[in-house]
Design a protein that fits this description.
Helix content is 23%, strand content 32%. The longest helix has 12 residues, at 226-237. Helix 8 packs across helix 9. By secondary structure, it is an alpha/beta fold. A hairpin with a 4-residue loop joins strand 1 (2-7) and strand 2. The chain contains ten helices and 19 strands. The protein has two domains: 2-146, Glucose Oxidase, domain 1 (3-Layer(bba) Sandwich), CATH 3.50.30.20; 153-352, 3-Layer(aba) Sandwich (Rossmann fold), CATH 3.40.50.880. A ten-stranded mixed sheet has the order 10-12-11-13-14-19-18-17-15-16, sandwiched between helices.
Amino acid sequence: MKAFLILEDGTVFAGRGIGADRDVISEIVFNTSMTGYIEVLSDPSYAGQAVVMTYPLIGNYGVTPDLESARPWVDGFLVRELCKTPSNFRSSGNLQDFLEKNGIPGIEGIDTRALVKILREKGTQNGMITRNENYNLDIIIPKLKEYTTGNVVEKVTRKEKTTLPGKGKRVALFDFGAKGNIAKSLQARGCAVTIYPADTTAEEILSDAPDGILLSNGPGDPKECTGVIRELKKLYDSDVPIFAICLGHQLMALATGADTYKMKYGHRGGNHPVRDLSTGRVTISSQNHGYVVDTERLDPSVAVPAFENVNDGTNEGLSYIGKKIFTVQFHPEACPGPQDSGYLFDRFFEMMD
């Protein structure tokens, strides 16, 4: 069956429908990873977004047990070619059935190179995935321009406090849409991890006397999370060591008086070079973000840049002055992506000591 992607600038791409048969309006973003599509589909940071995979063949190793959360979160999935006959000893099925079962519509057979070129030149756009051949652009385009992701953190955060066992340090994981491998990376270092919903107060977290606090990744515009930002200011004022990843990094910056802005098309993929400004060392990182901290509005008495993106010079992390706090924009837990920056969990562990 034919399917169409309609962008808010009026561009229309035609292909074949995959996954669920339903219309969806979402923010269209692209990911440059060659593998790891299961982790991408299940990353809560993609809530409110439909993902274009730039690698031309997706689904060749089927559906593997590598989900980063209990369910997939993407609104839609756009690929050049969807593999119908996967081959992998860990595979439990094909991607078509997985998308359909989870209500995710998608399109294959579109020119993903042309689509990504538009997103890079014009910036991220909203779009509609539909199988309705009688679509009306005059009706659809105003709806696309009105669409916003809103405060999707409320949608993806867990609803109840959860504790994962460990015999070492006790870490509070503030869940704004945390990927599963963050908790696993802490547990691998012996930590007992208590995961708190995004609406938890700072007082409740501090009353449990954690050895350290980790602020997780998550979706959407950080400025939408006004309640969380107020609580993070209280955590900043405590003496508890804090490590923050992605959205958590942005929220801590906002809580301490800095600013963030939306990037033209963001960083999403497993091949982004990041420079550690303290050592000059460059590592390849996994990333998924559309917003970034504005270092021009950073108070140097509060925090200084600690990492930068080698490609475009944007901020990739902060070190806080006089505090046991450091934050990164990229994903040291990987999944998918290289594990070059996994040492940052060890740095956090040492900071707790």
